[in-house]
């Protein structure tokens, strides 16, 4: 059996949920994967011209994964836009997709709602199909692009055999539309995490660190407020800037470029606590941030706003919330002073690895013998 997978992120990007989804299928016996790279499915923005391409943050991927790049004009939301791409650019792509699924039994996985994926769902043979909703994709867009993505997502979600949702809010969204939904939260590749070391000596200037994209969901006013209240603390923000950061920043706020996983872990080893300063809005309502699992797996406490899946984690050890209207300095200092025990870290790693998430998931039942599926 083969997996045709329409990914929302490039294969060469920092390993995320789609990478571990593909690996989980391979571990369960999928012969090969055709990883369809994302193409522009929204209208271009003026700031796209100013955005610098990120350095390749990718890691070695399985040799059984074939990466298929899709050339496309950024016109999909316009009437006739996808037909134009089909006519001008997608005939070789469609030939590859058809040959891949015709070579044997196939699973069709969709991680990004787009026209090419919807066409594959309706026209190509598949023994099983799923939509992996790792974000509330329409909320990334506005105007005609948002309406286009929402329409495509609804058609895909109601057309597949199973919707896999990465958060409670996303599971409720698709359940309310009558879809068969399985909630599978995010996790972290615990096999790649170094042994936990208990912090011994206090740092001369403690670091509150953030690793990830700095997009529209990143709460810059909150971070600047924290930096102003805690001038003796260094705020280190590591990752690509999808929006321009404030020009005027306190001297204790430092930006670092995006990096690979090993370098990110090395940076995090210097942190006193890990920061998740996300705004609370319709986009973040469906988010289960992987960086939470990364921080806690490394033995760090997590300092977060209340949004999405994080809101359901009140009372968890090592998690501290930044609440509106409250003084933040005492909470930040409590988070920096928190020490995770070796047993606590070991339990967290065991319960929140990708293997634990995917074990027993209905998503993979198609790989079981028919007798077991019927039981």
Give a brief rundown of this model.
32% of the residues lie in helices and 15% in strands.
Strand order of the largest sheet: 3-2-1-4-5-6-7
Our Rg estimate from Cα atoms comes to 21 Å
Portion in strands: 5-15%
Span of the ends, CA to CA: 22 Å
The CATH architecture of the largest domain = 3-Layer(aba) Sandwich
- Helix and strand composition category: alpha/beta
SSE pattern, N- to C-terminal: EHEEHHEHEHEHEEHEEHEHEEHHHH
Total count of strands: 13
How much helicity do the residues have? 25-40%
Q: Care to describe what's here?
A:
By secondary structure, the chain is an alpha/beta fold. It folds into 2 domains: 2-187 and 354-374, Glycogen Phosphorylase B (Rossmann fold), CATH 3.40.50.2000; 190-351, Glycogen Phosphorylase B (Rossmann fold). It contains 13 helices and 13 strands. Helix 7 links the parallel strand 8 (207-211) and strand 9 (234-238). Helix 4 packs parallel to helix 5. The protein starts with a strand and ends with a helix.
Which descriptors apply to this entry?
Rossmann fold, alpha/beta, seven-stranded parallel beta sheet, 13 helices, 375 residues, six-stranded parallel beta sheet
